[in-house]
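Continuing the batch. This is chain 6 of the set; chains 1 through 5 are on the previous pages. Same settings as before, nothing changed between runs. Recording input and output for traceability.
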Amino acid sequence: MNPQNNFSTSGSNNKNEGSQSVTDNNSVTKRLQSELMQLMMSNTPGVSAFPSSDSNLLNWSGTITGPKDTVYENLTFKISLSFPNDYPYSAPTIKFVSPMWHPNVDMSGNICLDILKERWSAVYNVQTILLSLQSLLGEPNNKSPLNAQAAQLWDEDMESYKVHLMDRYQEIDE
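Output for chain 6:
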């Protein structure tokens, strides 16, 4: 069995896989509980995330406030975080729930960020992900845009960029 893929599959004859799946879910739960405590204790400004419900630790809601001295300053965005059963060996799926205007975020809220894709590492945690997303707001990667129009305006016409951003922006209820 591949050590990075320890979840059980249906139809298997291996009697140990069911207990292995429970063990894996327990380790994911423990990791996420630990990360939640770390995040709560750190009191990192501008980012927060919590499980969406007490019954499911794999789905979280979070907020990111734009960094100081950027067009996103004082704007707060809601995100969703969905953790796979093999977390931290696989990256969580993160999307902007709030409407977003950004070169690396498409109109559906999908995010193009290398640490959430090909550069994912098990050393990353919720806090580092949130801080990376916050940093991305002020420093987009225009070489790999999901929103080509936003990337072009970022490079050529920041005033028009700000207009588009504020047209899409919606304050969130906390």
